[in-house]
Amino acid sequence: MINILFVDDEPNILDGLQRMLRPMRDEWEMYFASGGVQALALIPENNIDVIISDMKMPGMDGAQLLQAVSEQFPHVIRIILSGYSEKEMIMKTLGTAHQYLSKPCEADTLVGTVKRVCSLRILLNDSNLRQLVSQLPTVPSLPMLYTELIDELGKSEPSTKKVGDIIKNDIGMTVKVLQIVNSAFFGIRRTISDSTQAVEFLGLDTISSLTLGLGVISQFDSTTSTSFFADVWAHSIAVGIMAHKIALCEKRELANDAFTAGLLHGIGKVVLAVNLPSQFNKVQQLIKDENISEDEAEETIFEATYAEVGAYLLGLWGLPVDVVKAVAFHKNPIDAESNSFSALTAVHAANSIQRSSATPEGSGKGPDFDLNYLGKLGLLERIPLWRQRCGLEIA
Length: 395
Description:
With 395 residues, the chain is α/β, with parallel strands linked by helices. It has 21 helices and five strands. It has a five-stranded parallel β-sheet with strand order 2-1-3-4-5, sandwiched between helices.
């Protein structure tokens, strides 16, 4: 049973929510509060899992409420309900809201969002992991630019020009997207100088995934080592593109999820490095001194791996379960109990291939193929083709 708290100062809105969500009574225990003060009192009394709050409320508004919740009850999943006209107010919730829902919100949308953000509790049912993430002072929220992109992509006929215009609203984002699109990763023979052209070339889903990754990275403290960011981002881009190519070989319909998961598979490492630099450095030292795996060192210091932390964060954002699963298990896919090719397979293979082809400094440090996993799926003979499609010689 999931305990959900709805907060709105208008009684008719709360009554409407109660009626609309009556079919969920067997799965959800629902509570309703008319303001921030009442909401903060109800959370500990009822072991609330998710809070869904209106933005505009007298006294304590939605932004202030979610800030208080993030400080007092960091384990609670925080969702804002807002109208488009409240965009400036929504900016105040960056870093405190995990999800944004537009008003009016259909029942299917609301139910689907809550189910997605709560699904990671089953996937990653680890109290140590939840405790670790809840203590992080800087956990990025879902980038607003990405939210706008998702809104546009959700339309029956999304506009390439509109998506390009959304990206143009952020100069830094435009520069980064064009830099990546024109890099050697995509092998483009002509220079692309406009964000709309970039969208046309890469496709709407791919450009939105790029924007998501860039938006996440940009939210972190700029004092963090730029070389660290550069290394992680370069590796992530390579894995995303390779995962996309591998998925195209096997199941084209999974290519976009594979790209997104590959692009974001290392986000947990960035989160830990930024928030807990001392412990993160201890992990690196432990790997050197004890000659143990990265997972073993992280379990010793954090009691969780960076892959689990990243998956937990993406789950809070409500990204597709297949993406979350691929990020969580990309180094140990056999633990996911999967029986067919998936985004996880593509990301695991891409990460292994990229690590094996890395520069001498990183060569040999990455995970090898999980041959038991690939053998179970009957895919061992596909490895040479994947390596070839990723631009490597056949071994």
